[in-house]
Specification:
- By secondary structure, this protein is α+β, with helices and mostly antiparallel strands.
- The protein has one domain (7-182): Glutaredoxin.
- It has helices spanning 12-21, 61-72, 95-106, 125-134, 168-182; strands at residues 28-30, 36-38, 46-52, 77-83, 146-149, 155-159.
- The strands form 2 sheets. The chain has a 4-stranded mixed sheet with strand order 4-3-5-6, with helices on both faces. Strands 1-2 form a two-stranded antiparallel ribbon.
- It is globular, with a radius of gyration of 15 Å.
- Residues 1-20 have low confidence and may be disordered.
Length: 183
């Protein structure tokens, strides 16, 4: 199923953890340029976190993610690409190679993180938190899995890899999160 799971369905244990740590805003990544990238920087904005790969059948989604970013960034959407080599070794390059590929082949100018593990025991803490929030079905099964973070740091929705950035259900969820930011 490709129905987004809303954070309100989280267990009592994860809700307590979220209220103590600010939800997604408690986590940070390393940018593709090697600088700290705290998600707290995006408090008050909607953030679409997408694990990406350069050699995947879904790689063309970079175009759609860039279009989504361009369409909604002035309203407060941040698209955050998280390159990962966890699925089929489809992101083997260095950060410099990934950045060049994304920029040159897809015109990507939304923020990217350094290459990051998104599954298993080595998964980044954000990904462990998102899975705990929404349950095991919400864990990335492949590249281009998407998590939508609400302006207050809650996990608002998630989408499987095959949900394109132009999918109506994804756009509706983004618009609902942006309305929260604008309220």
């Amino acid at each position: 199923m490709d129905t987004p799971i809303i954070a309100e369905e989280a267990t009592e244990e994860t809700q307590d953890a979220q209220s103590e740590d600010g939800g997604a805003h408690a986590f940070g990544f390393t940018s593709i340029d090697g600088k700290p990238l705290p998600l707290a920087r995006y408090a008050g904005k909607a953030v679409l976190v997408v694990n990406t790969a350069s050699r995947c059948g879904f790689t063309g989604q970079y175009r759609g993610l860039q279009a989504l970013w361009e369409a909604y960034r002035d309203r407060g959407l941040v698209v955050l690409g998280v390159p990962s080599n966890d699925f089929g070794g489809q992101e083997p390059g260095t950060e410099a190679e990934i950045r060049a590929f994304c920029s040159e082949d897809f015109g990507v100018d939304f923020p990217l993180t350094a290459k990051t593990a998104v599954r298993g025991p080595e998964a980044h803490p954000f990904y462990r938190w998102a899975r705990a929030e929404a349950g095991g079905l919400a864990a990335p099964k492949w590249n281009f899995h998407k998590y939508l973070i609400a302006p207050d740091g809650r996990l608002a929705a998630w989408f499987y890899s095959w949900t394109t950035p132009s999918a109506e259900r994804l756009r509706r969820a983004v618009e609902a999160a942006l309305e929260e930011a604008e309220a």
